[in-house]
Recover the amino acids of this structure.
C-alpha cells in the first residue's frame, strides 16, 4: 500500500499540472503534439520512456484488486503497451494521434479526463492516506 500511495502522489501531481495546462493552454499543447508527431526522435524517445515507465509500474505494481490501486496497474500496462507499439509501429500510433488531436477541443477533453485521474490520485495519495492515519484502530 505504501508504494501505491507514493505512486498516487506522484501521478496526482504530474497529472494535475498537465491537465491544467491542457485545459487552460490547449493551443500550446495542440501545437506541441503536432510538433512531436513530426519528429521521429521525439517519437522514439517517447516510446523508450513509456516502455521504461510501464515496465517499472508493471514489475513493481502489478496489483489487480477492486479498488483505486488498480488504476496505477492499468496505467502501467497502458504505458508498457504504448512504448512497445511506438517502437515497433510508430506510424500507426502517429496516424491515430493525428485523428484524435486534430482540434483543440480534443486537447481540452483529454485535459478534463487527466484532471479527473489527477483528483483521484491526489485524494488517495494525500487525503485518504492521511485520514487513515488519524482514525485510531479499533481495539
Amino acid at each position: 500500500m505504501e508504494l501505491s500511495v507514493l505512486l498516487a502522489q506522484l501521478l496526482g501531481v504530474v497529472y494535475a499540472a498537465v491537465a491544467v495546462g491542457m485545459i487552460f493552454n490547449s493551443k500550446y499543447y495542440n501545437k506541441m503534439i503536432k510538433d512531436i508527431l513530426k519528429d521521429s526522435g521525439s517519437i522514439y524517445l517517447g516510446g523508450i520512456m513509456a516502455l521504461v515507465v510501464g515496465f517499472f509500474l508493471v514489475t513493481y505494481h502489478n496489483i489487480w484488486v477492486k479498488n483505486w490501486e488498480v488504476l496505477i496497474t492499468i496505467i502501467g500496462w497502458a504505458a508498457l503497451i504504448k512504448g512497445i507499439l511506438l517502437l515497433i509501429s510508430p506510424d500507426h500510433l502517429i496516424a491515430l494521434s493525428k485523428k484524435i488531436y486534430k482540434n483543440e477541443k480534443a486537447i481540452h477533453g483529454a485535459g478534463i479526463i487527466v484532471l479527473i485521474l489527477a483528483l483521484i490520485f491526489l485524494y488517495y495519495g494525500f487525503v485518504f492516506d492521511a485520514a487513515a492515519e488519524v482514525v485510531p484502530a479499533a481495539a
In short: The helical segments are 2-24, 26-38, 40-60, 69-88, 90-100, 104-134. The chain has a mean pLDDT of 91.
